[in-house]
Amino acid sequence: MTTDPPSSTIGLIDGPAHVELVLSLEPSTQRRLSIFLRWLLALPHWFVLEIVSFVAVFGALGGWFVALFTGRLPTGLQRFLTGYLRYNANVISYSTLLIDKWPSINFERQADSLVDVEVNQVRLNRLAVFGRVILMIPAFVVSGLFEFGIYPCLFTMWVLGSITGRVPRSLHQAVATILRYQIRLNAYMFLVTPLQPFSGIFGDGVVVTASVADGQEVADATTTDDQAEHRGSSTESEGSWRIVEGARRLIVVTLVIGLIGSALYFTFGPIRSTSTNNDSTLFRAVGNSYNGSVTELNVVLRTFSTCTVPSCITSAIEGAGDTHLYQATLALEKQAPYPTGVSSDVNKYIAYLIDIQKDVNAVAKSTTLAQQKEIVAGKIELDLGNLTYRGIAILIYLGEQPGFSSMNFQW
Length: 411
Fold this sequence. Notes:
Elements: E1 18-23, H1 32-36, H2 38-70, H3 75-95, E2 115-120, H4 126-130, H5 132-135, H6 137-149, H7 151-164, H8 169-189, E3 205-211, E4 217-224, E5 242-244, H9 245-268, H10 277-306, H11 310-320, H12 323-333, H13 343-365, H14 369-399
Parallel strand pairs: 3-5
Antiparallel strand pairs: 1-2, 3-4
Helix pairs in contact: 2-3, 3-8, 6-8, 6-9, 8-9, 10-11, 10-12, 10-13, 10-14, 11-13, 12-13, 13-14
């Protein structure tokens, strides 16, 4: 069984948003030696993928600023990120034994490729673009559970595949469906689509099997989660990704294992310093300072849409003042000395906060709109990206401390 979604459309369309992984849901016979050595064979592609992922992250960060104004990614960036998702899907499919064909390092669609990613570019909601980091947190939690829980499935596939040259159908479909979720999550994270990845997390329907005289099982009917009147739709709602019930159960088991594994890891994992009130205060200070930097940036961005002369933008910035960012930076500096495991990150984080303050002041002092926009598109974009990276590292470290809770924090 192979999914049969509409083709990708690069360029804005008025139709429904669409992201689909195109991959056979029927496992094929593979060379046993290739399966046994699969991760070693895939290693070069993972090195390439790491480099391309780094470029994709910064490309998406730049696209975030553009989408805030225009409600869409530039066509070239949309094409690149779609190609990145396609290559990512091919590498993971090869590594997880879903296909046996060595992936090519090519972001364009290939006629003989066993894996493809189909995307339609539609207009993005600018408010959702602004809050994308917050909106994708639930999807990232589910993704983390999948990453914790999928290892027993992959190990079982590797052992059985190395012996028989073929993986069980239910395992193949379960891993393929989880990969589909991850690709959709990446598409949402990189602003390629406005669609959250939760639709079809357990497939689009179940293949019902019936026993025949010789004891084999064949698919004789299908049930889908979509209503019958949607079957004729040209989008993925037609339920083309139908999997066996065993695959669905494996996906549930994977989530449960991921939940248990996560709980055990954070309870009995590597010894870390016990969480203290200082950790909680530092957590809040980092969050507040990041909000302050985003507030300053919003002041600058809003003025570009209403002001036509540099003095207007300067007045808006000076009128708002640097109070949010300045006070948040002072509060963060007062938390010193910082926990040993995160001290270096906090110091670099403060340095980026100060850089953003200087950037905003430079915008206010610029004498032309072109200079002001150049600072925003260049320096502020880069510094905010560095600030986000360091901030996430700090929050993850603090959140992993035993006994730590951020449930009562106001963001």
